[in-house]
Amino acid sequence: MSETKKSGIDYWKQIVVVMSLGWVAIWIYRTVLTPIYPEIQASLDNVSNAEIGAIASFYFFAYCSMQIPCGILVDKFGQKIMLMAGFTLFIIGTLCIAKANGLAMIYTGSLMAGGGCASFFSSAYSLSSANVPQARRALANAIINSGSAIGMGIGLIGSSILVKNMSMAWQNVLYIVAAILVIML
């Protein structure tokens, strides 16, 4: 395997960093809403706890149901195209939730975000397995996976501090998430 260098850093190391940051971004989104469900609920009229809880269900329904189709599309069109398409859909879904004036729009945004994130798993691991030297794959996968824990902490703590302690509108937290996703794109 060729260890091509781009920008002075081995290409496989760049992939590991970008894929880890991708998980950070995904997990920030996945966890950012949970602590602020009461604020979301208060901004909507007469919404039950079950209806608020369904926001995550819509995301994970799309995420899980699109894993295999996205894997097929990654094989057909390539990892980079699917990463860009997936993150674009993820951004649109996140913005849809931020701009939502009702639960239906939040559910739609959650479906879009989940569908967009579905392309990441197969793209990230096929990129790493194709480019990371065999002797470094276990370490690379550990670094890539650590992005999820980092993102989870940032999402849970960040939204709690920004919305609950600093009185930021919950929608602004999603604009911040969308900005992070645009940077990733």
UniProtKB/TrEMBL annotation:
Residues 15-185 form the Major facilitator superfamily (MFS) profile domain. Pfam families: MFS_1. GO terms for cellular component: plasma membrane. InterPro entries: MFS (IPR011701), MFS_dom (IPR020846), MFS_Efflux_Transporters (IPR050189), MFS_trans_sf (IPR036259). PROSITE patterns: MFS. The chain crosses the membrane at residues 12-32, 52-74, 81-100, 106-127, 139-162, 168-184. It is found in: Cell inner membrane. It comes from the Bacteria. It is a multi-pass membrane protein. SUPFAM superfamilies: MFS general substrate transporter. Keywords: Cell inner membrane, Cell membrane, Membrane, Transmembrane, Transmembrane helix. GO terms for molecular function: transmembrane transporter activity. This is MFS transporter.
